[in-house]
Design a protein that fits this description.
Blueprint: H1 2-45, H2 47-57, E1 68-71, E2 79-82, E3 85-91, H3 97-107, H4 109-113, H5 117-146, H6 151-181, H7 188-199, H8 208-213, H9 215-238, H10 248-269, H11 271-280, H12 289-304, H13 309-335, H14 339-370
Antiparallel strand pairs: 1-2, 2-3
Helix pairs in contact: 1-5, 1-13, 2-13, 5-6, 6-9, 9-10, 10-13, 11-12
Subcellular location: Mitochondrion inner membrane
Main location: mitochondrion
InterPro entries: MCP (IPR002067), MCP_dom_sf (IPR023395), MCP_transmembrane (IPR018108), SLC25A33/36-like (IPR049562)
Amino acid sequence: MSTTVSDDNSTNGESQQQQTPVNSSRSSTIHLFAGGLAGTFGAVLTCPLEVIKTRYQSSRNSFSKGPNHLDLSSSMSNTLVHNDRPNAFVVTKRPSIIKAFRYILRYEGIPGLFKGLVPNLVGVAPSRAIYFFAYANTKSLLVESMERETPLVHVLSAATAGIAMSTCTNPLWFVKTRLQLDQGNLRAMDVVRNIYRANGIRGFYKGITASYVGVSETIVHFVIYEQIKAQLQLSQLNQNHSPDDPGFFNFISYLGAAACSKSCASTLCYPHEVIRTRLREEGTKYRTFLQTFKTVLKEESISGLYRGLLTHLIRQIPNTAIMMSTYEIVIALFSAPPPSSSTIEVTTVQTKKVLLNEADSEANASNQSEI
């Protein structure tokens, strides 16, 4: 009888070893799909704010059509320039997001609010997919090697994922920025041809240093997010609720956790966004990360490094909240085993236990009869 049990255990061990690579591959695919879908939703819904934010960050006047135009070239962006009186400056309230929105809608139409959307859609799915894929797998490897999940694991995972994503997708974001700064009818292929003719492949990686520095924002974001998420899951368990249940409460919880963590990270690390936009401008004086940082700080003071922060937060908070909550819900939906297979598996295990118990009883009975 003991031989039979041993055979069953060895068979179960072999089947588990065979299923492990399959489950690991399926998990990676789920993370890849969830990250891409989440990033796409966020990009489409917040594209107009992305355009306005990029123009605020630029050193150029991106609102220069019409008899009266908003001059955003000053550090505080608080002057209204009259074209009929070029030397007259009237100090007014800082141009609001609503005014910028109306300006683009008036002079560039609805397509102007979605400039750069095509490279954004082309890039957001693979970039988020690469990010979440790298983050999840790096985290899994580190937890396996360290035998526990610590803040250092989150930091290293986020840094690795951020660098991998930036390296792979920087050309797409470069083209997107150029399109968003343009007020004409520039096409993505025009940008690609012009950059390649002028600087070759290296031209598409302008601003990559700022993106690497921006990994710090991602690190801060995910460290805070993972801590809040852990507390939420602990609270769910204390209330006898499953933290993986894709219900309304979990959706709202992840939404709040993502928004809170991203707002903190964005505020702390925002200057790299302005520097990256300046580096991607065409024909400007900005050359390197440190040179751009010093130039902006000298000419526009500290406020110049935070131009467009409000727009950035207004865009990033809902974008990140949508992205992270969608990611978590998709993971929960696709990771949960189907009820039928779970029932069959439990029934099979219970049947084996019953059969083994019956066999043991028969063996004991026969032994006693022999005695």
